[in-house]
Structures are given as C-alpha cells and as structure tokens.
Amino acid sequence: GQGELCIVETPLKTQFFTPVVETLAQCKGCHFPAQTLDQKASRRSPPINQVHVIHVQDPEGGAVDVVVSADDKVVPSSAVPPHPPGSPSLRIALVLFSSRGRRAPVVFTVSGQGLASDMKHTFLVSGEDEVRGSNLRYSSTHSHLLTEDNLIQAVENDFGFVSSYTRAPKANKIILHLPAENETGNGCDATVSEDSPSADCFISIEQTVVGCYHHNMLGENDRDIHIIEVGGSSNLNGSLVLSVLGSEDGGARTLSKRGSSVVERNITLVLRTSRPTTWSFHAANLQGTITLLVGGRDQVENTSVPGPGIIVEVRRLDVPATFDQLILTVLTNVGPPVSYTRTKSPNKITITVPPRSTETHIVVPPYIRENEQTP
Fold first, then answer.
1. Is 164:174 a contact under the CB 8 Å cutoff?
2. What φ, ψ does residue 336 adopt, rounded to 5°?
3. Element (H, E) at 168
4. Contact by Cβ (8 Å): 319, 215
5. Which residues form the TGFBR3/Endoglin-like N-terminal domain (predicted)?
6. 183 and 254 in one domain?
7. Which whole-number Å values give the CA distances from 313 to 223, 288, 289, in the listed order?
8. Are 52 and 92 in contact (CB under 8 A)?
C-alpha cells in the first residue's frame, strides 16, 4: 500500500542499492603491435577485431567485474548501417585468467559500455573460473591449458593475435578502454612493470546496508522516492559519488539513439548525512527527472549526465534527526518512500533502476534476429 511500514532489516540485501569503498589499484600492462590483415582474417567468422588478455592475481573478494568501454574513437572504418550511429560494431575476445589456483576459483562478470548490441563476443576462461555477461551477447569457452607462463603465447596461437595484456595484482574491478586502431605498443609478457595503457583498476569493497526496500513499489507511482542516509564519505575531502543507472536486464525498454536501452523513471533521492558531504552525481541509461533533496551543509557538484533525456534538480530539505520523524517528513512533504537505506561511510553508491516490469514486451532492435536474444 501507499504508506508501507519500514521494517528495518539488518543487513538489507538488495541488488538495486550498492554502497562501496572504492580505491585505485595497480594495473600493469601493454598494447601489442598492429595486426597484419592476414592475421585479422584469422580463424573466426565474423572476424574478431580485438583480443584482450586480463590476468588477475589475487582479487579482493574473489569476484571480478570487468567493464569493456568503447569510446567513439574505436568505431572501425568498416562500420556501415544498420548500426545506430556512434555504436562501434566491434567483435571482442576477452581472455580472463586468474592465478589464484584451483582452490579459489574467480567469478568474472563482464559488462559493456557503448558496444553495439548486435555482436556476439567471445569470452575464454581457464581452470575452475567462471564468466557471466551482464548486458552483452557472448559465447564462452573453457581452457584447462592456460598457465601464467604460456598465457600470451597460447592466446596468440589460438586467436592469431593479441591487442592488449593487463595484469591486476589485487583489483576486483577493471575498466578496459578499447584502444583505437592507431593505439599500439611493443607488446610485453607477464613480468611487465609499466602501468597499463588501457585499463583503470580498482579495489571495491561492498559496505553493509541496513534498512527496508519495497521492491513491489518500484515504478508504481509517478516517481520513485528513496531515502539514503550515510555517516559520511570514506574520502577525507568528504566527496561521495552517487551513480544512478538504468538497468539493462529484462523488462520493457526504450531504445536510445545509440541503440542502448534507457529506463523511463522519475526519481527523488532524499540524502541525509552526519558529516558535511559533497555528492558527485552521475546518471546513465535513464530518462526522466531526478530530484536530489539535500541537507543544509551538503553540496552537489559536477552532475555528469549524458544525453538530453535526464533533468536534475537539487533542492534543500533539512530532515529531522529521529528515524520516525524522518519517515513522516518524507511521507508528508515528498510521498511514500520505496526504500530507506543506511550505511556508515562509503565513497560510492550505485542505485540501479530496473525497468517497470517484465510483463511488458521487450523492444528488440530490428538488427537482432528474433531467435537470438541477449543471454
């Protein structure tokens, strides 16, 4: 109903609210020389444009997120319609290798940013490791023959070439920026000591959440209202990244011009902190108005919002100190909250906005054949 009680759960588990402490981590690596045409024609159809080797050694928590990011610069010259403008039609092979050994398999989750959705990519894992793709079409293969010593050579033998190698000693989040055709290097082996030219690496540690989350209320009213309470940021300067992302999993979606999907939703975030905080706001894959209600000592800065579909409003709302008064103030002045969450000191919070409900049909772009849905 409208005024559902918030029965606080400790800890609260929800996939739609993720507070972390994220710190920069080391990543070594290199680019390899450009490919000759006969190498490119190698072994696969349609041909694979880039082959990237990612080698994790001892990732924090044993699960690794890999984000493959294509900027506009990597569009191959051969890209022709029907691809939406700006979406590179690259086919990528990712070799995901861990040297933690059989007793401690690693689960890799791969997601794409700015990659065309009509390509089926190839993921190769070894040992007992597993791979999942979140918003990419892919096929995965398994090799028990890869070792740290033969890694690059074996990949070269298999695919005909290698584009980059990245070694992450501790990172559990790796953002791989796909190189443009003219970004090449001299290659390297696993002992490389230079910083990676193509990867940003992080150690991300999830923080405990207490609170309540009414999943059944998502998208039910004209706006989703969330109350977010934090002690403060783990960063000394008080900056806290707040990232609101439309989810690409399931449900009804609207295709944006780039061929990626957007979720339509108005959202109000009531932000309450114990220490002065500077919220650094980001939004993506969304369409609608996002209203941030912040207390007197807090600030909101560099709201990075790609595209014209998102309107961001920042307003002041000083909320009372006690929990009951807080909920009552929001109910009276804003509306019924979908969630109330409390965390101590993250430096990054990601809010995932799922599509309305899976009852509605999925909008499939015309260039995906009906029989080939996203995994």
1. no
2. -70, 125
3. strand 164-168
4. no
5. 207-354
6. no
7. 14, 11, 7
8. yes
Give the integer Cα–Cα distance in Å for 291 and 315: 7
Give the count of domains, the chain: 2
**Do 52 and 30 form a contact (C-beta atoms < 8 A)?**
no
Q: Which residue has the higher pLDDT, 362 or 19?
A: 19
CA dist., res. 10 & res. 13, Å (int): 9
According to DSSP H, which parts of the chain are helical? 37-40, 151-159, 323-333
Measured CA to CA, the distance from residue 333 to residue 225 in angstroms comes to: 11
Handedness of CA 208, 213, 219, 225 (dihedral sign): negative
**pLDDT for 335-353, tens place per residue?**
999 999 999 999 999 999 9
In-domain check, residue 371? no
Q: For the residues 97-124, what does the mean pLDDT come to?
A: 86
Neighbours of 14 (CB within 10 A): 15
Task: Give yes or no: residues 175 and 78 share one domain.
Answer: yes
Position 3 in a domain: no
Do 51 and 126 fall within a single domain?
Answer: yes
Per-residue model confidence as pLDDT tens digits over 293-311: 998 889 998 677 766 789 9
| Domain of residue 63, residue span | 27-194
Backbone angles phi, psi at 74, to 5 degrees: -95, 10
- Looking at the fold, whether 154 and 224 belong to one and the same domain comes out as no
